[in-house]
Amino acid sequence: MFTDKFLEVIGKEGVVSIVSCADNEAHVVNTWNTYLVNPDDGRLLIPAWAMRKTEKKTLKNNKVLLTVGSKEVIGRSGRPGAGFLIEGTAKFISSGPEYDMMKAKFSFLTRVLEVTVTSIKQTL
């Protein structure tokens, strides 16, 4: 599901925006590309420290949108800058083997945001 270009983008530094929506209100939180972990099964694991409002919204509506990009990667136009729009479903993990693996990589996390990707589209 994840293209080589997408994997190249998340390997470079850039901002990830995570959008959740419930109660007729969208909420956006940011993290970094290099914090995304791809377990090779159509999911992304993201260390969560705060993200409390995101968690509350995903309990009501688990659909999320993410955008990722990096100006260090050549995009569709042949110029620097590649980006993606990701649609998926989200849940927060607070225990188990994936939590432990992520905690070993990112000591600051309190939970892990798991996004099961349903759609990915290159936008840049």
Task: Tell me about this structure.
Strands 2-1-4-5-6-3 form a six-stranded antiparallel beta sheet. It is α+β, with helices and mostly antiparallel strands and 124 residues long. It is globular, with a radius of gyration of 14 Å. The chain has a single domain, classed as Electron Transport, Fmn-binding Protein, Chain A (Pnp Oxidase, Chain A), CATH 2.30.110. Helix content is 20%, strand content 48%. The chain is built from three helices and six strands, in the order αβββαββαβ.
CATH superfamily: Electron Transport, Fmn-binding Protein, Chain A
Annotation field: number of helices: 3
CATH architectural category: Roll
The oligomeric state of the chains shown is single chain
CATH C-level: Mainly Beta
Principal-axes shape call: globular
Strand content: over 45%
Radius of gyration: 14 Å
Based on the model shown, name its key terms.
124 residues; alpha+beta; Pnp Oxidase, Chain A; six-stranded antiparallel β-sheet; 6 strands; 20% helix; globular
Write a brief structural summary:
Helix content is 20%, strand content 48%. The mean pLDDT is 97. With 124 residues, it is of the alpha+beta class.
Could you outline the blueprint of secondary structure elements for this entry?
Layout: H1 4-10, E1 15-22, E2 25-32, E3 43-48, H2 52-60, E4 63-74, E5 80-93, H3 97-105, E6 111-122
Antiparallel strand pairs: 1-2, 1-4, 3-6, 4-5, 5-6
